[in-house]
Specification:
This protein is 60% helix and 0% strand. It has 121 residues and is mainly alpha-helical. It is globular, with a radius of gyration of 18 Å. It binds 2'-deoxycytidine-5'-triphosphate.
Length: 121
């Protein structure tokens, strides 16, 4: 029994934001969760994701040859990145969902779908 329950719902950034806020409050960790600390924690977790891929060379999409435990580990480290990112945005007063949707629109204007890209720009 790992104490981890399966969650069967569509997870929103807002839901994760509130979960992280509760997690920090319950442990009296709000004073640790400053923007700079969270940024460093985020970068550290990106390093942990990189460690999983390092020395493997290019890997096919879907990771067909990976063991189940490797996939679980990757999911955990990607989650740490996401959770720190969500918390960092919250502590900076950024609405991450809104900001991301706006950025998608800017990307679409910059990189027009009507262009035929024969090489990466
Ligand atoms: N001050 C902290 C410490 C941890 N966490 C949460 C957010 C991350 O999802 C996770 C990170 O925990 P660890 O620092 O223990 O990192 P790992 O889980 O990656 O463990 P390890 O570094 O031993 O692989 O816990 C947090 O919110 N605030």
């Amino acid at each position: 029994m790992s104490g981890v329950e399966e969650v069967d719902e569509r997870v929103s950034l807002d839901f994760l934001k509130h979960k992280m806020a509760k997690f920090a409050k319950e442990r009296d960790w709000d004073h640790f969760h400053t923007p700079r600390n969270l940024l460093l924690a985020l970068v550290g977790e990106v390093g942990e994701v990189s460690e999983i891929f390092q020395w493997k060379g290019e890997v096919p999409k879907g990771l067909p040859d990976w063991k189940e435990e490797e996939r679980i580990h990757l999911g955990e480290e990607l989650s740490d990145v996401l959770l720190y990112l969500v918390r960092l945005a919250d502590m900076c007063g950024i609405d991450l969902g809104k900001a991301a949707l706006r950025k998608l629109q800017l990307n679409a204007i910059k990189y027009k779908a009507s262009n035929k890209y024969t090489q990466h720009p």
